[in-house]
Amino acid sequence: MMIARRDPRPGRSRTLARPSLERAPARAAGAALLIMLALAGCEDSEIPQGMRIVGGDAQAGASFIREYGCPACHTIPGIRSADGIVGPPLTEFALRAFIAGQYPNTPDNLVRWVMNAPDMAPRTAMPDMGIPEDRARHIAAYLYTLR
After folding, report:
1. Whether the Cβ atoms of residue 4 and residue 16 lie closer than 8 Å to each other
2. Which of 42, 64, 93, 137 has the fewest Cβ atoms within 10 angstroms?
3. 54: pLDDT confidence band, cut at 50, 70 and 90?
4. Mean pLDDT across the chain, nearest whole number?
5. Region of 11 on the Ramachandran plot (φ > 0 left; ψ -120 to 50 alpha; else beta)
6. Which stretches within the chain are classed as H helix?
7. Whether residue 20 has pLDDT greater than 60
8. Confidence grade of residue 71 (pLDDT, cut at 50, 70, 90)
9. What distance in Å separates the CA atoms of residue 40 and residue 142, rounded to the nearest whole number?
10. Are 92 and 74 in contact (CB under 8 A)?
11. Phi-psi map region of 78: left, alpha, beta (phi>0 left; psi -120 to 50 alpha)
12. How far apart are CA 62 and CA 52, in angstroms?
């Protein structure tokens, strides 16, 4: 939406258009989506630096996903019997722009989310699973393999 305003300079009568702030979140989301689509074109071995989890082992992460019972709530590709429908499916998680629809999908945010989601979003249905940081890093590494 464009908002018109009058030119304040004397003798000027034209109307100037000013961009609406209402589109800013949509533009940011669109930019994030374009970045994520660009990343989707990368090979698995070419995971962008910003998405790599330092000290994360995806194979160990898959094991911890099963151990903490994540499949009871989520559909998670590559994890046997992970067909839960309580939480959102985690398919193509690496391509998502946001975590829980509100936090940029960065490794630091994802590790924090896995460790204690209610600390970030008190109204989330995801419980604090008591997952220590080293295990959360492995789980996040696995989730970033989902493309």
Report:
1. yes
2. 42
3. confident
4. 81
5. left
6. 24-40, 58-67, 107-120, 133-143
7. no
8. very high
9. 16
10. no
11. left
12. 16
CA geometry: angle 125, 136, 99, nearest 5 deg: 45
The tokens describing 68, both together, are: 């903490």
CA nearest to 14, candidates 2, 24, 6, 25: 6
Residue 93, SS3?
Answer: helix
Q: Which one of 34-38, 39-43, 53-57 scores highest in mean pLDDT? A: 53-57
Distance of CA 99 to the CA centre of its chain: 3
* Pair of tokens at residue 110: 């994802």
* pLDDT of amino acid 55: 83
Mean pLDDT to the nearest integer, 10-15: 62
* Residues 57, 61, 63, 65, Cα dihedral to 10°: 180
CA distances from 65 to 80, 103, 124, 143 (A): 11, 21, 19, 10
Q: How many Å apart are CA 52 and CA 21, to the nearest integer?
A: 33
Q: How far is CA 11 from the centre of its chain?
A: 51
Would the pLDDT of 3 be above 70?
A: no
The first and second tokens of residue 108, run together, are 């630091």
pTM over 0.90: no
Task: Supply the pLDDT for residue 42.
Answer: 47
